[in-house]
Amino acid sequence: MATAAKEAAPAKGGGGPQLKLLVDKRSRRVLYAEARKDAVDFLIGLLRVPAGLAARALAKHGAAAPGCLGALYAGAMSLDDAFFVSDSPNRAALLSPAPPSAALPLLLGGEDAAALPPPPPPPAAKRYFRCSAYTLPCRGNPTNVTDVSGLPCPACRQPMTVEMRWAPGDAHGKLALAREQEAAGEGPGGYVKEVVTYLVMDDLTVEPMSTISAIMLLKKFNVKDCSALEEMTIELGTKEAVMLMRASLQSATALTDVFSGGVAIDRVDG
């Protein structure tokens, strides 16, 4: 299985995201993987893929969706137009909506990803207004705010036309800003910073990598002979992305199943 996986997913360099796997040659188990920002962004992006879009990607490559998801998707796709509320239902938008996700370009391939309906625009930022604070009892200390410009101040009855700047708490503000930048294609892109290498466990747990953490993992897995380990560099393409998504829904050893001991990548139809 491991040979088929390696032959089907060689690291070409300069292409898609890469995972550098450390594999126990005897058990064929992936101990962990090293990954850069682009690969970790893809993995985190899997959490933002809707169920319908996951079913579509799996069906395209002839891979069975877990549980009844594949049958549900196929049945909804074949349902006659007469049973939908809209006269001409857009099944792509209805059954596989595409919110911003770093995983989509890999899962669907270039042409399919480009053909997805665009995500809805982010809601317009709310604006807030106060009075001019020149008249008592608001002089120097306005206490009322509104989201309707020109509304009379309840205290001084002056029009509330001076715009205020909203200052959200850090957590809410950063999340809102990240969403706006992602939807507009602005900002650094993705979800994690690029300054470090990341450690990806067999169950897809992600954490920053350090020399100490790598040594502790080797101790945890009781590795006494480093010659029993081999390094395997995998470049993530559409096939690998689809199989990783399926394995993440079915298994707690996704890296081993896909790249070393489970369903070989070359069994997925292109």
General description of the model:
By secondary structure, this protein is α+β, with helices and mostly antiparallel strands. It is 37% helix and 13% strand. The chain has a five-stranded antiparallel β-sheet, sandwiched between helices. A two-stranded antiparallel sheet has the order 3-4. Strand 1 and strand 2 form a beta hairpin. The two termini are 18 Å apart. The N terminus and C terminus are likely disordered.
Shape: flat
The average pLDDT value, as a whole number, equals 80
Compute the gyration radius: what is it?
A: 25 Å
> Could you give the distance between the termini?
18 Å
Strand content: 5-15%
Low-confidence stretches: 1-13, 262-270
Q: State the order of secondary-structure elements, H for helix, E for strand.
A: HEEHHHHHEEHEEHEHH
What is the strand tally?
7
The helix tally amounts to 10
The structural class is alpha+beta
* Spatial sequence of strands, sheet with the most strands: 6-5-2-1-7
* Helix content estimate: 25-40%
Major sheet summary line: 5 strands, antiparallel
Question: What would you say about this model in short?
Answer:
This protein has 270 residues and is α+β, with helices and mostly antiparallel strands. It is built from ten helices and seven strands. The longest helix has 15 residues, at 170-184.
